[in-house]
Amino acid sequence: MPELPEVEALKDFLTGHLVGHEIVRVLPVAISVLKTYDPPVTALEGHEVTAVHRHGKFLDLETGGGPHLVTHLARGGWLQWKDRLPDGVPRPGKGPLALRVALETGAGFDLTEAGTQKRLAVYVVGDPGEVPGVARLGPDPLADDFDEERFTRLLAGERRQIKGALRDQSLIAGVGNAYSDEILHAARMSPFKLAASLTPQETHTLYEALRTTLTEAVARSRGLAAGRLKAEKKGGLRVHGRTGEPCPVCGDTIREVSFSDSSLQYCPTCQTGGKPLADRRLSRLLK
Q1: Distance, CA of 198 to CA of 50 (rounded, Å)
Q2: Edge-to-edge strand ranges of the sheet holding 108-113
Q3: Which residue in 1, 71, 8 sits closest to 217, CA to CA?
């Protein structure tokens, strides 16, 4: 799933390729991706893209005098830029293509979604705040005003495990499954530790790991073409998705805890005092 660093890089890429250009065609191929119907997607046509924004994991194309095109790529979605779009109108079918946006130059992009879980979402709205997922977002962890004091206040009273708290978009915007694993590894902290139990020093360490991990991931992604961002993300991860590999810090074997629809990865030596976590939903260590 694209998270804050990849969406931030997509925002920068699209700013350089879309701003100042006119949208001439918007072609929904999979109607299910459209989550709004008034205004219709055709309301974007004839308007110039004036800015590209990121709200958490949401991409927002702003047009001059027209609506916003807001997209959430979900787990299997992606944006594929094309310097020259294929001629003709794409036919609906079983392929990954969900929506096509064409510019006056003949360039444009496709929104695609792999897999069977179709969660890619497209909204055409007068204001991005009309999108429920955007409206409920917590603060952006890379914003200038997201300081350690604010982070401490967010965690105060949180009775959840820190892994779940970091992934809660209404608490902190943009961090998902992969980067929460990376942040906790950098902080040398168990994903099952209760957020409210953190000491001031642990909170400081976690804040520094959060900011550093995300800032470095954004820096690695910045300037890359849209098609290279997935590979860069995978190559830059130290523990997430690397079950069975040696930890790059201590050499211990990276382990996994599986859930019904996701999994987390961690290093026992770095994060849990050498003890493996129970591979089930219960937040306790194997005895």
Answers
A1: 44
A2: 23-28, 97-103, 108-113, 77-82
A3: 8
Task: Give 280's pLDDT tier (boundaries 50, 70, 90).
Answer: low
pTM confidence score: 0.91
Calculate the dihedral angle through the C-alpha atoms of 163, 137, 41, 78, rounding to the nearest 10 degrees: -30
Q: Look at residues 89, 96, 101, 114 and name the one whose alpha carbon lies nearest to residue 59.
A: 101
254's tokens: 């990276």
More confident residue, 201 or 261: 201
Q: What gap in Å lies between CA 157 and CA 66, rounded to an integer?
A: 43
CA distance readout (Å), 47 to 41, 68, 102, 243: 12, 10, 12, 47
Nearest to 56 by CA among 147, 129, 154: 129
Give the pLDDT confidence of 197-206 residue by residue, as tens digits. 999 999 999 9
Dihedral sign, Cα of residue 145, residue 138, residue 177, residue 286 = positive
Alpha helices, H only, 52-198: 132-135, 148-155, 162-167, 177-186
**Taking a C-beta distance cutoff of 8 angstroms, is the pair 271, 188 a contact?**
yes
Cβ atoms 211, 142 nearer than 8 A: yes
Give the tens place of pLDDT for each residue, 221-253: 887 777 777 777 878 899 999 999 999 999 999
Instruction: Tell me how crowded residue 264 is: count the other CB atoms within 10 A of its CB.
Output: 22
DSSP calls for 1-21:
---HHHHHHHHHHHHHHHTT-
